[in-house]
Amino acid sequence: MANPNAGIETDFAIIGAGSAGCVLANRLSASGAKVLLLEAGPPDRHPMIHIPAGVKSLLYDARVNWNYASEPEAGTAGRAIHWPRGRVLGGSHSINGMLYVRGNPADYDGWAQTGCRGWSYQDVLPLFKQSERYEQGGDDIRGGDGPMPVEHYRTILPLTHAFVSAAQQAGFPLTPDYNGATQEGVGYSQMTRRGRWRASTARTFLTEARTRPNLRVETGAMVTRLTVEGGRCTGLVFRQGGRDIQVAVSRETVLSGGAVNSPQILQLSGIGPADHLQTLGIEVVRNLSGVGANLSDHYVTRVAHRVRDAVSINELSRGWRLMREVARFFARGDGALTFGVTSAMVFCRSREGLASPDLQLLFTPASYDPDKPLVLERQPGMATVICPTRPASRGTVMAESPDPMVRAKIRPNYLSDRDDLRVMRAGIDHARRIFASPALAKFSASELFPGPETTDDDALAQFARERGTTLYHPVGTCKMGVDETAVVDPELRVRGIEGLRVADASIMPFLTTGNTNAPTIMIAEKAAKMMLA
Ligand SMILES: Cc1cc2nc3c(=O)[nH]c(=O)nc-3n(C[C@H](O)[C@H](O)[C@H](O)COP(=O)(O)OP(=O)(O)OC[C@H]3O[C@@H](n4cnc5c(N)ncnc54)[C@H](O)[C@@H]3O)c2cc1C
């Protein structure tokens, strides 16, 4: 390895320009301090990043994606699950499905209950508000003038309206704004989109900040380790164009590398479970058993139907209809190319007596070929993804080598807690009731998956193991908390190391009731506030 050049001096260094890192770059540089933002991937010039429907083409694209995979496990019937993560300015927000879902107030009150003072819903609500620019304007709950546009679908297919009606017929009330006063019920999706284009944190927060001379952004800059002296993080080393460059940080370093990379960088820097680090020959700087533990992810299955008497996205993505949608996108800025991954969703409970929803059902007027990932079927189809939102199963992300270029091993332990299967089954039952309700039943020719014959617990559990996949929401590997298993304290400071924080999805003590991007942006807003205080 080349000798680190005595290179750069900065007040703040941010590792990773993803959902969180771009927010931090904006807020920290607004203070006038010198800020360095380091991103392993390239600038976000790939055209498919910016067209919402382009998401499918990015899911395996190694130019902008780490393309991780989980280890084969019993819970996935021995399958490795593909784990896309953004490796580009904007991080996973440049390749994600763009759904904007804050979660349930009970999620944050739950974080506070575990001892994380300052993270209750009332505490974090102003942070959600300050980041967003909701197209219907601000009020007590929504923000109207932040950097991040949040918009509704511009075109809604009749199948989506039918789903929303059917869900109400099945007993789920309409919620006009699941990010507003009431999450529970059925509602239309909201997206981080500006007009026809994706609005990532790179294209919003970072673009705004890049006019400031005190912010320096380096792409193709892979951080390989932190430098820790006398219990304080004094900087880091990054590799760019084959050179190792040393950064001296006078105030603080913040890790925003995401739920896979943040724990790996800590472990490679000697901060993690001592026994594991010793097996890799890494000198232990600080024994923290929680680094890489507590991995939690949304593992999902789907109920899919063949459609009759209606048009689904399957047909819109081919032939003359596709040509028409492309023309429509450029001429009017609407149509199928502005779609994200889900047009409507239900938040509901797996059983009576729960304090808040533990299931999210995500409807798409499209269906995928079961044997070809992300290839839409030729015939019309529709599907509802079943997402148990607060799974009990926990896994790990562990470095396998002291070499930063060797990928960490991801072991999610999906479905290892039997209650996750119970919740999954309840979600499948709810979805089947919705599909059987008159508004949607008239468009259904047949159930494709799990298939009408798959009804008992064992068969549905096997279906979940054989066909389930990730909704791409790993969290928890640098858990925030106040006990021995926590990696960061409620101010996001790495326990026992000065001058170092983690601010990204990895700090969530447990998953939120919904998709994880909006909560991650909120975490970064709060981190910046605490760092500048
Ligand atoms: C395919 C997909 C679809 C999704 N759909 C949705 C959705 O519709 N709605 C939603 O709310 N959530 C969605 N998510 C989840 C959401 O995008 C993530 O939870 C969120 O982006 C996590 O943000 P983060 O800042 O923790 O990490 P990331 O956004 O992944 O950012 C981490 C950044 O750090 C960089 N990095 C890592 N290691 C290093 C290093 N050593 N040196 C320098 N840089 C480094 C990475 O390249 C990356 O840019 C989706 C995710 C994926 C992958």
Layout of helices and strands:
Elements: E1 5-15, H1 19-29, E2 35-38, H2 47-50, H3 55-58, E3 68-69, E4 82-83, H4 105-113, H5 121-131, E5 132-134, E6 148-152, H6 158-169, E7 185-188, E8 190-191, E9 193-194, E10 197-198, H7 202-209, E11 215-218, E12 222-229, E13 232-240, E14 243-255, H8 258-268, E15 271-272, H9 274-279, E16 286-287, E17 299-307, H10 313-316, H11 319-332, E18 344-348, E19 359-364, E20 381-388, E21 396-398, E22 409-411, H12 418-435, H13 438-441, E23 444-449, H14 457-467, E24 469-470, E25 500-502, H15 517-532
Parallel strand pairs: 1-2, 1-14, 2-11, 5-6, 14-25, 15-16
Antiparallel strand pairs: 3-4, 6-8, 7-18, 9-10, 12-13, 13-14, 17-20, 17-23, 17-24, 18-19, 19-20, 21-22
Helix pairs in contact: 1-7, 1-15, 5-15, 12-14
Bound molecules: flavin-adenine dinucleotide.
Task: Characterise the protein shown here.
The protein is α/β, with parallel strands linked by helices. It has one domain: 3-Layer(bba) Sandwich (FAD/NAD(P)-binding domain). It is 27% helix and 23% strand. The chain has helices at 19-29, 47-50, 55-58, 105-113, 121-131, 158-169, 202-209, 258-268, 274-279, 313-316, 319-332, 418-435, 438-441, 457-467, 517-532; strands spanning 5-15, 35-38, 68-69, 82-83, 132-134, 148-152, 185-188, 190-191, 193-194, 197-198, 215-218, 222-229, 232-240, 243-255, 271-272, 286-287, 299-307, 344-348, 359-364, 381-388, 396-398, 409-411, 444-449, 469-470, 500-502. Strands 1, 2, 11, 12, 13, 14 and 25 form a seven-stranded mixed sheet that branches. α1 (19-29) runs parallel beside α7. The two termini are 38 Å apart.
